[in-house]
Amino acid sequence: MTDVMRGGIPLTWVPPADVIRALVAAPDGPARAIVLEANRDAIVGSCRQVLTEVASPDLQHQVRLLEECVDMMDSGRHQGAQALAASVWDTVCRGVWRAEPHLNGGKRWNYKEVDARLPDIDDDDTVIEFRQAYLFAPFVNACDSFWDNDPVPTTFNRHANVHAAGPTQYTVANALTALMLAVSLVRELEEGILSVQIHV
Fold first, then answer.
1. CB contact at 8 A, 43 and 36
2. How many CB atoms lie under 10 A from the CB of residue 189?
């Protein structure tokens, strides 16, 4: 499972268990993209359901935006869903970073430092620590650096999503990944263990 998450695909709160099993069985990133696309409806339905579990008033604006992403995915507009989901995910990430001293170390959000500050997956973790390590594991891939001379990543990447909008980055698999990243983070915040200070 760690290979799937380190490859950028979230497995916390979404997708459903049968999709997780298929993703884990897939041998590599391209095969996982095929699994995501083949299970589009189940993943979108799972995201829709999980969003109904978020009741915190502080998260409702983000929930509404993510519901719009779900509606866009349902109507075949994956590019718009990907762009909006990525923006919501980035906004909420910054809010968590701002509110959690163990993540920010007194510093502002910096994509280069994401990997160094996120919790590792450790066999000795408590259930909550384990879930949060799983939650954050895909963030490293999503925040990986991307520069003008680099090839455009084929997996979801926040920087390529913004700075290299085109057919390589904007795919159904990447739209589903961006949506799941945002939904899983917002749903985890509903648990009340992590703090968030969303600046909107």
1. yes
2. 23
